[in-house]
Amino acid sequence: MRHHAFATAATAFALVALSSHESRAEGPEDPPEGYRPHVLDYVTYSGSAIVASASRLAHERPASVTRTAPGVYRALLTGTQYANVQASAYGAVHGFCNVDSWTPEAPGLTIVVRCFDAAARPQDMGFSVVAMWQGNTPPVSTLRYGWIAQPMSQSETARQPMLYRSGVFVNGPSIVVRTPPPVLKRTAAGAYTTRSGSETALWFATPTGPLPRRCRGYTTPNEMGVQCRAIDTGAPADATVSFAVLKDGTLTPRVSEGGYARFAANGQPFPNVGGAGTTAWSSNGGRVSAVREAAGRYRVRFERHASITPGVALVSGGCRVTGLANEGGDRVVSVDCNADADFDVILVR
């Protein structure tokens, strides 16, 4: 069985096709039964060359990226064939990147990435893409992730609109199950919400498919979910979405180094609704802070994380990572949002 997250059909028919298509699993296909190790695989591409890549599993070939059309890239990760996939913009060119599809192809996972400019036109640029897979080997992980596969559905049944590929939702022998209703429900155009809230969790969301969208997760004390908009107009717009829910030690499917944080446009920690602290976490207990250098430009410092080299950083849609560097014992992520904006950032290896 082979599944694409999306077929590259004409944009005008994409959401119609997706809302009626019945897929049995997120992304490529159901995983095999039996031994399944945890996976973390990534590649960062500058727009002309790979600047960082790594896998938690031994593999024969390094990651590769090939440009196949304006703004369209084929990234091959050779450490896994099963994964939740997240992506964000990287490098000197401002823009937005989606994960069009992900498919198992020997010797690994082929991920098609589409990038756009602010007018929603295809644009050549850099990006980072991360593949995560929660296996059934120790240490046990409670990382939650999924794929909003039926974005137009308002059904509260387990079949629509959500498909999960996270072991924390397993209630049978297979790692791929559909959770009991309600899961995520479409509450408005481009808005997908669950009533299970957590102020300290960080939802990271990546639009999937050929449509020019930007999506971002949100959390409140009573609910959390994903909101999506059209890139060019900024209007709420439906989208298929891959998401990961980060909370404290569930940064990746295995115990890994890194951290995450949400910041306001002035570079200060973003206050949670109700004033109960901020959304930030580091695996070593160090501080995660940001400084606004200029309009839309920030330096995010992860204390005592210089050992994360090369590592990969993801930033929420509308912003891009322009570089990673060590300063003393800290790892610093440079972020450019093209204008002052609040943003989410993740660092991991």
Describe the overall structure.
The protein is mostly beta strands and 349 residues long. It is 2% helix and 43% strand. It is built from 1 helix and 24 strands. It has an 8-stranded mixed sheet with strand order 2-1-8-5-22-23-20-19, with no helix packed on it. The longest helix is centred in the first third of the chain and has 7 residues. The chain is globular and about 45 Å long. The N terminus is likely disordered.
| Helix-and-strand structural type | mainly beta
Termini separation comes to 31 Å
Q: Any idea what the shape is?
A: globular
Share of residues in helices: under 10%
Strand order in space, largest sheet: 2-1-8-5-22-23-20-19
Radius of gyration: 18 Å
Estimate what percentage of residues fall within beta strands: 35-45%
Mean pLDDT: 80
How many beta-strand runs? Answer: 24
Q: What summary fits the major beta sheet?
A: 8 strands, mixed
Could you state the order of secondary-structure elements as H and E?
HEEEEEEEEEEEEEEEEEEEEEEEE
* Oligomeric composition of the shown chains: single chain
